[in-house]
């Protein structure tokens, strides 16, 4: 009979009924707050490469810490060529120099080399301010993002989250 009493506020009776009703409401609010705070990335696929859009780098770093994932960050402003971008990513990810020579070396380091190091909890990767320059054109940017897409697929097969967020450098308008 008590179970029916909880289903509709007008049917609640008894000395503990108001307390029970408030507790249910508080529990529902608390559950909603916990779900909201559970994960900033709960609606983001576990293995994806996407524009950073509404995400904040600081929030992503904090989320990586809460999830126990590696946070890899590369700020690529002031890079103009494929070699400079690879070098910057390798340097800021603390990869060995050979991993930074070209896209193939970077791909191998993001996948096989890291996998051989042992079990991995997951990754949140941020590539910020990817250049938009004559020597690093749209095709080069897509090739770089393909390296990270390949890595996301590799880690998906291993059931390890690998999320990549990127942004492009804004190009000032020419006069």
UniProtKB/TrEMBL annotation:
Residue stretches making up the Barstar (barnase inhibitor) domain: 70-166
InterPro entries reported for this sequence: Barstar, Barstar-like_sf
SUPFAM superfamilies reported in the protein's UniProt record: Barstar-related
Family: Belongs to the barstar family.
Protein name: RNAse (Barnase) inhibitor barstar
Organism: Massilia aurea
High-level lineage: Bacteria, Pseudomonadati, Pseudomonadota, Betaproteobacteria, Burkholderiales
